[in-house]
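Ticket 4471: requesting a sanity check on a complex prediction with FE2/S2 (inorganic) cluster. Repro inputs:
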Amino acid sequence: MNQPVDRQLLCRIEDLSDPGSRGVEFLRDGERVSAFVVLRDGVWRAYENRCPHTGAPLDWVEHQFLDADGALIQCAVHDARFDIEEGVCLAGPCPGARLTPLPIELRDGAVWLAA
Ligand code: FES
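Returned structure tokens:
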């Protein structure tokens, strides 16, 4: 028998435009974890808000995780750029490094963390 899935609400679908991003928080072992949800061309992804370069948060403006074109995830600290689908650094000080992905599911008009 499957274990019950511990789902946590990250955001509502209408909270994001396409392309768009939104900072969120969830609980892991009782601790708040900073994360973000991104949407581009109908593809949803979520990552922890921690740059693999130094561990710093990526955003400098609330909910702003994408570059000016909305094409790449951008770290505001040293300008690393990551592809949206895989979270791999394509340019900047940590090429090839990856953001930490989070499993999500879309249900009932919302984005949920699927643990
Ligand atoms: S902390 Fe993100 S690029 Fe340096």
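Notes from triage: The mean pLDDT is 94. Leaving this open until the requester confirms.
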